[in-house]
Amino acid sequence: MNKEAILDQTVEQxxxxxxxxxxxxxxxxxxxxxxxxxxxxxxxCPRPSDGIEWPRRNGxxxxxxxxxxxxxxxLGMLNHGVDMMGQTGALVSGVxxxxxxxxxxxxxxxxxxxxxxxxxx
Length: 121
What we know:
The mean pLDDT is about 85. The longest helix is centred in the first third of the chain and has 21 residues, at about 5-25. Helix 1 (about 5-25) runs parallel beside helix 3. Strands 1-2-3 form a three-stranded antiparallel β-sheet, covered by helices on one side. The protein has a single domain, classed as Aspartate Aminotransferase, domain 1. The protein is an alpha+beta fold. A hairpin with a 2-residue loop joins strand 1 and strand 2 (about 35-40). It has helices at about 5-25, 65-80, 100-115, and strands at about 30-35, 35-40, 90.
């Protein structure tokens, strides 16, 4: 898979994840740079208008996710068979299939639902 195709996959995944946040009325955003994606959960932040890059507001950096929320997110994703890089980041690479990306999104949506049910988000 070439670099452009990986970027397209990343933009698509970020868009789906931001839509999942919006649909569940969860504060936060998913943004990226190249094939890396990052999450800011439980924070008021703008979502990327171009689908990927952090939309700097007055030069502000993205807000960090509270460590308790980050740990719960990491464990929730693991419970659904997806190991995120670190706690609130991931890579999309040429070895990831469309099936992998779909499974990641499904795990993300399920984890958000569970965290909301537990009152974490």
